[in-house]
Specification:
single chain, alpha+beta, 5 strands, 19% helix, globular
């Protein structure tokens, strides 16, 4: 089973807010924080962007981790 983890990075002097998504094997992508979304939806956008980059298809289920990151896994088709 493949898992995708996401993390929020706040703005710095040179970069705006962003969300990074990564999975095993060193696959990752960082997107600008989608301000039209919030919370889990913003993290899901990053996970979806990684899926698009890697040509991974399927439905994701996810939620928050205790440290504020989010984790998403593919769910089996019913």
């Amino acid at each position: 089973m493949k898992a995708i983890q996401t993390r929020y990075f706040g703005p710095t002097d040179t970069k705006s807010s962003r969300v990074k998504a990564w999975a095993e094997g060193g696959n990752s992508i960082t997107i600008g924080y989608p301000h039209e979304l919030s919370g889990e939806a913003a993290h899901r956008a990053a996970a979806d962007a990684l899926c698009a980059k890697m040509n991974w298809a399927g439905n994701l289920a996810g939620g928050a981790l205790p440290n504020g990151d989010y984790a998403f896994c593919f769910i089996a088709k019913g």
